[in-house]
Amino acid sequence: MFARLREDIASVFERDPAARSTWEVLTCYPGLHALMFHRVAHYLWQQRLRWLARWISHWGRWLTGIEIHPGATIGRRFFIDHGMGVVIGETALIGDDCTLYHGVTLGGTSWAKGKRHPTLEDGVVIGAGAKVLGPITVGRGGKVGSNAVVVKDVPPGATAVGIPARIVEAGREQAREAKANQMGFSAYGVAQNEDDPMSRAIHGLLDHAVETDRRIECLLQQLEKAGVSVEDEAATADKFDPRAISKIVD
User: Fold this and answer.
1) Backbone phi, then psi, for 109, in 5-degree steps?
2) Which of 22, 117, 127, 236 has the fewest CB atoms within 10 Å, measured from its CB?
């Protein structure tokens, strides 16, 4: 038990730069307290002492603001940052090294008995306010953006954002941001709502610019292999007036 507690405290230091001391983590981190309550309640639940398990879970909710059903299965090094408003349902399965932020719900979409809550595989991160609903699976290393509503499986290593959540292709958001910085503005200023036509237009432009750059780079490499000097042409390839983007969004 104490070995698991030391492991939990170490995971807090790894994922929260605000943690300053072991005493602070032990006394001031509701996520750690909620996990300790849950371990007791879950053990009693497995021993079929259901009322006592629910009663202890209820006290844990009252003291921490985090509601974890005693039937939920939680792996090692689980970390809830801030924690207020987190709800984890009875049939939820959480793997090792997972992280949840405040306001997260791992909920159900059906009143039917059986598996009705999500499964989080190892290393999953769920952003603040996100709702992961139903007997779906968030694959190993997956991420869910803040305030997203996820009702379909998330592949391993993928990121889900939006309402309803969509899967962001690996590397596409990073490529957009890199191109946006090169152009002189930040893509973080672009709304992530895919229903916004302006957002779709700007994302389309950025995707097109990234793909064009990739093709031009391939052409330059082939020309250099053929012995054609491309220094003069390449010198002007990255010139871009960032005011052009401002005209689009005015």
Assistant:
1) -120, 5
2) 236
Tens-digit pLDDT profile for the chain (250 aa)?
Answer: 677 888 888 888 888 888 889 999 899 999 999 999 999 999 999 999 999 999 999 999 999 999 999 999 999 999 998 889 999 999 999 999 999 999 999 999 888 888 999 999 999 999 999 999 999 999 998 899 888 999 999 999 888 888 888 887 655 656 655 655 555 544 434 444 545 555 666 767 777 888 888 888 898 888 888 887 766 555 555 555 555 555 554 4
235 token code pair: 């010198």
Calpha distance 4→74 (Å, rounded) = 12
Residue 112 main-chain phi, psi, to 5 deg? -70, 150
The pTM is what? 0.66
User: Smallest Cα–Cα separation from 198: which of 249, 243, 164, 162?
Assistant: 249
